[in-house]
Amino acid sequence: MTKKILSVALAVLMLLIVAFPVNAAVEVTNVKVRGLVIDNNTAGPIPVWDYQNFAGFYYDLKYNRSTETLKLNGSVSDYSGRTIDKTELTYETKGVPVDFKVYEKETSDVSNSATWVKVDGDSSYNLVGWQAEKWIAIKGVSNKIAKLAFEMEKEDKKTLTTGETWSLGSGYELNINAIDARTTPRQVWFTLKKDGAIIDEGIGQAPTTNTGEAKTKAVYFKKKTILGESDALLFTVYVDTIFSGATSDMVQFKYAWLIDESSAKEIKSADRYGVFEVREAGSALIRMDNENSVSLSKNTEVTLMGNLKLSVADNDTLRFYPFVEYTTPGTYEVRGTVVDINSTIPPSWNAQNFAGFYYDIKYNRSTETMALDGITSDYSGRTIDKTKLTYETKGVPVEFKVYEKETSNVSNSATWVRVDGDSTYNLVGWQAEKWIAVKGVSNKIAKLAFEMDKEDKKTLTTGETWSLGSGYELNINAIDARTTPRQVWFTLKKDGAIIDEGIGQAPTENSGEAKTKAVYFKKKTILGESDALLFTVYVDTIFSGATSDMVQFKYAWLIDESSAKEIKSADRYGVFEVREAGSALIRMDNENSISLSKNTETTLMGELKFKVADNNTLRFYPKVDYVITEGGNVTPTVTGTAPRGTPGVTVTGTATATFTTARPTEAATPLGTVTPPKPPVTTTTVPGFEAMFAVAGLLAVAYLVLRKRK
């Protein structure tokens, strides 16, 4: 009997380990998502930026729907003077239909109208992308828009009893006044409020049968006049069931949908938004162009409107792209170019068409590629056969910021300021994340724990500690501002253990030689590579403060040695097996077949996935999820540009970013781009390692008890 119990227990534990993986994502403090790069190599007319090549623009994978476009007239040569003349930059948007979730989930047969479950006769609402954000078209009118305050996910439920309040966000709440589970149909009486003021009082009923007619009666909705549009939908919710609880009756809601009326606005002809003036605004379309000229000066960011900007490379070659930057806590799904069954070009992704892959706009450098063998129609059976999906990556040089900023003349070696003779380090994109090549060897990589931005400074005095992330810290032991050269004695530690003790000096003059002496570095053997750079920092200045001497550091750069790993031939990462791994290149292909079943997400490796449309037409894209956490306590991981002391992410490539707000306890998440945090709903969550360890602990206790009895 004991052996049987233990066998079952161990089997359950194995199933838990397989079935309940940890829900992870790349954690960052900001997400900067860009569109297609335009430069002097762009031939012919400049491509239009749309959902396929600009990450900020809305896209619906299921129905292949999009809304926004941004167009620059002419060719790149027309802008050699680095100025966009007035009316040359055009922005357009329109409304596109999106199914209500109650229609999508409760309608049993879309070809049979008797089974339809609609909201007052409507199966969909219109969504408008506006300034790279998601808005709702009021009563389907594209130029009258409002923010979506709340939308439950398809599988979310919210259970309440009499007297309870459901906070819906943006000041809205639903109060449960009474529930009657003994009448037919079963009913609930509730009040909808905004900032404490009553908006509506209503009675909803649960469906009495499983028919479309009965379910439709369970769809409650509130309409009102908004921006002059009568009977515009404000709120809807589905009363899924009403039942008798242990002590009171209870109601369960699904598919709640709510707009924030206070955010509603009408976009009119001649209105101005940023650099744009509205030329056309109606129920079907909004069209704007730039009212005045727009500068493309190098190393600038130009705000077009709202969160929509242009980034121009710090290079004499004209190179630029549109981007949006997100800082609100939440999860951002960043995708690559969509491929479908009708694509005639062999599907492939790189830094130009997949935003997860690293890209350096200044020097036009990239590292990762992924490609399918053949065209999409070869995969009509929804299976990628083994070895048909190939992933490659390599190291690319990136300048140390101390070289970039302190070298006064790159053509004169006497002015160079380098790190032990090196002006660059090698960066490797790996699994859509940024890694550092240990001593330039592409298949020996480590995480960048910390890198200061070009303009950052850190001032410290004796006895102070500088936390660098990943357990590293720099302790200031002593500072001497009275000797020549002025000096600082510090200790580098990892998790309290001393890694290095060193003395740095401030430059005595403005020459390259004097500045080079101010570059402190620590090298050691990492993964068998001797003299691999671990840490470097520039002692910018040492000065006498009011009460003590002080040191100012710049350009700190540090890798996390504990993250270092070597990628070897025949190693396996997710669906891939490494076929080639060396100092110059890593190449892998899929070891086994990969399914492209509809409405699925397939993990390729790490956080790199394929997302497949919930549609009979094969349509899919690669994606990576990035999480901005509340409070900034994140893993120091950077993809793209380096962090300012704490990690951020610059997502580069042709992509679409889908933003989901950070879920508080039992939170519902809306579909779409940039929306506010959601109020609590009941969701099904997947246990992580905590649950596994808890079960493992219980099984271990059971084993010891049974063993003792035996």
Record the SSE blueprint.
Blueprint: H1 2-19, E1 26-28, E2 31-34, E3 38-39, E4 59-60, E5 65-66, E6 69-72, E7 83-84, E8 89-93, E9 95-99, H2 101-106, E10 124-130, E11 133-137, E12 144-151, E13 158-161, E14 165-169, E15 172-180, E16 187-194, E17 197-205, H3 212-217, E18 219-226, E19 229-244, E20 249-266, E21 272-273, E22 276-281, E23 286-290, E24 294-295, E25 300-305, E26 308-312, E27 319-326, E28 330-335, E29 339-340, E30 348-349, E31 359-360, E32 365-366, E33 369-372, E34 383-384, E35 389-393, E36 395-399, H4 401-406, E37 424-430, E38 433-437, E39 444-451, E40 458-461, E41 465-469, E42 472-480, E43 487-494, E44 497-505, H5 512-517, E45 519-526, E46 529-544, E47 549-566, E48 572-573, E49 576-581, E50 586-590, E51 594-595, E52 600-605, E53 608-612, E54 619-628, E55 649-651, E56 657-661, H6 689-709
Parallel strand pairs: 1-54, 2-55
Antiparallel strand pairs: 2-27, 3-27, 4-5, 6-8, 7-24, 8-23, 9-10, 10-11, 11-12, 12-20, 13-20, 14-15, 15-16, 16-17, 18-19, 19-20, 21-22, 22-23, 25-26, 26-27, 28-54, 28-56, 29-54, 30-33, 31-32, 33-35, 34-51, 35-50, 36-37, 37-38, 38-39, 39-47, 40-47, 41-42, 42-43, 43-44, 45-46, 46-47, 48-49, 49-50, ...
